[in-house]
Hints:
Number of strands: 12
Strand content: 25-35%
Largest sheet: 8 strands, mixed
Helix content: 25-40%
Bound molecules: 1-O-pyrophosphono-5-O-phosphono-alpha-D-ribofuranose, uracil
Distance between the termini: 38 Å
Order of helices and strands: EHHEEEHEEEEHEHEEEH
Number of helices: 6
Mean pLDDT: 95
Amino acid sequence: MSKVTVVDHPLVQHKLTLMRDKNCGTKDFRQLLEEIAMLMAYEVTRELPLEEIEIETPITKCKSKIIAGKKLGIVPILRAGLGMVDGVLALVPTAKVGHIGLYRDPETHLPVEYYCKLPMDVAERDLIVVDPMLATGGSSIAAIDFIKRRGYKTITLMCLVGCPEGIEAVQKAHPDVDIYIAAIDEKLNENKYIVPGLGDAGDRLYGTK
Ligand code: PRP
Ligand code: URA
């Protein structure tokens, strides 16, 4: 079964509380989401393998560590996942960015795909899928399905707010995908929104509705 890591760093928790507040406006919401994504990326990348190389400092030659292994790709689930990309890129500026467009059908709550463009170098990249909300899990599961069909193997899911139902669904569908999340909320309501959650992440990020 995959690993679920709750990123409980005080800065992440503080900023998430500010975002949850219904009086948090679009500008602050956008900035806080980017900041949290950067802080979470620090945790997600904690176990990247290192290798030693020889370098020359102004004083002497020495061995020093650099990140080894495969390069990273970031895949936001549109729209709201876009708000997390720049935060991750701030720490991993060489990452490539793919996009998956999905929306939840308002009646069925099932994900509908409308766009998918991923980096081409499948064998060279480990992917981090980003989306602030993990509600039923349908969108994340569908996104990871698409990505796996293109041949990518090492995938990590990074979300802001989830609930037990969504996490269980992703773990069942993709037991090889580790999940990083800032908060696991109580439940879903009758409209499949997370309670207490933060409302509709896409609308709050872009000021729509
Ligand atoms: C939101 C959110 C997730 C999805 C989560 O997107 O950003 O992608 O819902 O719900 P799920 O786990 O039940 O699938 P939404 O469909 O509202 O699209 P948007 O980002 O374009 O607003
Ligand atoms: N999508 C959101 O943006 N918020 C939720 O609570 C559930 C799905």
